[in-house]
Write a structure and sequence with these properties.
The chain is of the alpha+beta class. It is about 35% helix and about 25% strand. It has helices at about 5-25, 30-45, 100-110, and strands at about 25, 50-55, 60-65, 85-95, 115-120, 120-125, 125-130.
C-alpha cells in the first residue's frame, strides 16, 4: 500500500470514528469479538447462515450469508468492502432449513455476545444509543 493510500484509509477511519461517536453511546463488539462470533458460527455444523446487517453510516439493510468455514473468516474484513467496525448490528435470520436457535445456543456458550431475539431471528448488536 502506498503512502497516499494509507493516508486515505486513515482519513476514512477517522470519519467512521466520528460517525460512531456522534450516533452511538455504547459499543458492544470489537473486531476480535466479531471474528470470534463469525468463526464460531462458521464452525457450527459448517453451514452458511442467512444474515441481514446494517452498517453505521447507512440506513440500508443488507442481506448476505455467513461463511461456511472458519478459515474463511479473517481479522480485517466482514463482507467487502465493509470492516467489522462498521457493523451496527447483524441478524441471523430464522429459516426453516437451518437451526438458528441451536446456533445461538452454541454462540452464547462460547462468549457473552450482545444477542437479542427479534421476530425474524437473533440480532447481535455492535452499537446502541442509550
Amino acid at each position: 500500500m502506498t503512502k497516499v493510500q494509507e493516508e486515505k484509509l486513515a482519513k476514512s477511519y477517522q470519519r467512521l470514528d466520528s460517525v460512531i461517536a456522534r450516533k452511538f453511546s455504547v459499543s458492544y463488539m470489537s473486531n476480535a469479538k466479531w471474528v470470534k462470533l463469525l468463526k464460531a458460527a462458521a464452525s457450527f455444523e459448517q453451514l452458511s447462515y442467512r444474515i441481514t446487517y446494517k452498517l453505521v453510516n447507512n440506513d440500508q439493510i443488507k442481506t448476505s450469508y455467513s461463511e461456511q468455514f472458519a478459515e474463511h473468516v479473517d481479522d480485517y474484513w466482514f463482507i467487502e468492502p465493509s470492516i467489522y467496525k462498521e457493523i451496527e448490528w447483524l441478524e441471523f435470520t430464522c429459516d426453516e432449513n437451518y437451526k438458528v436457535g441451536s446456533l445461538i445456543e452454541h454462540l452464547t456458550a462460547i462468549a457473552k455476545f450482545p444477542i437479542r431475539q427479534t421476530p425474524t431471528g437473533y440480532k447481535v448488536l455492535g452499537y446502541s444509543k442509550l
